[in-house]
Amino acid sequence: MNSLFRSHNKNRIHRRISMPTTLAVIAASLLAPFAVIQSAQAAVASQIVIHQPGTARTVPSSTLTVAIDTDSAAEASFVAGDEYGAFAIVATSSTSKKATIEGKEWDIRVSREIWLDSSGNPHASRAQAQGFVVVHVRDSAGGAGAASLSVVDVEEDTTTTYSNLEAGSTSTE
Fold first, then answer.
1. Is the distance from CB of 81 to CB of 59 less than 8 angstroms?
2. Which residues of 8-40 are buried (b: 16+ CB within 10 A; e: fewer)?
3. How far does CA 66 lie from the centroid of its chain?
4. CA distance readout (Å), 70 to 6, 75, 121
5. Looking at the predicted structure, is the pLDDT value of residue 159 above 50?
6. Which of 21, 75, 76, 74 is nearest to 50 (CA)?
7. What are the residues whose beta carbons fall under 8 Å from the beta carbon of 58, sequence distance 6 or more?
8. How confident is the model over 23-56, as pLDDT tens digits?
9. How far apart are the first and last CA of the chain?
């Protein structure tokens, strides 16, 4: 292996390359991958999911009017139902910035899953749309047991602790 390496180096032709040329070649090799990535991102298809409250696991025959960025509005059909109600899936581009759902704007860079409340206002989570969250607690043996729960409200900068929660208990604070 050493002899091959040495013989290769003996036959090597040395050329002088100017500094500006060297820098241009280095810059082009470093920037080329970014240009390819940016052009590929524009073509990537994406989607948003819009949840609408309603009867659990029921798919309504109605549709939502949705516009992505500056595109004209189109009807989005509901595709399935879950515990919250029904949901629709809408195709977008990965570079899309906003959706207008039933006349209300939503920044889809915040969340590509949109939860509508009973008034049709968009939210980033089911808990925000409902105004409450359901917590299921089990003890280490797998049965229902008493527990404590601390809830942090980052918008209000408060923490509320619920102590000795029993199975089936409800708190609406």
1. yes
2. eeeeeeeeeeeeeeeeeeeeeeeeeeeeeeeee
3. 18
4. 64, 15, 20
5. yes
6. 76
7. 81, 85, 86
8. 665 655 555 554 444 444 444 678 999 999 998 8
9. 77
| 171 Cα distance to chain centroid | 30
Burial of 121 (0-12, 13-18, 19+ CB in 10 A): middle
pLDDT digits 0-9 by tens, 108-152: 988 899 999 999 999 999 989 998 877 766 666 655 566 777 777
Name the one residue in this structure whose structure tokens are 């906003």. 98
**DSSP output for 28-85:** HHHHHHHHHHHHHHHT-EEEEEEEEE-STT---S-EEEEEETTSPPEEEEEEEE-SSE
Q: Please compute Rg for the chain using Cα positions.
A: 28
pLDDT for residue 15: 54
- 87 membership: H or E segment, kind and range: strand 85-93
Q: Which helix (H) or strand (E) holds 6?
A: helix 2-10
The single-letter DSSP state of residue 141 is T
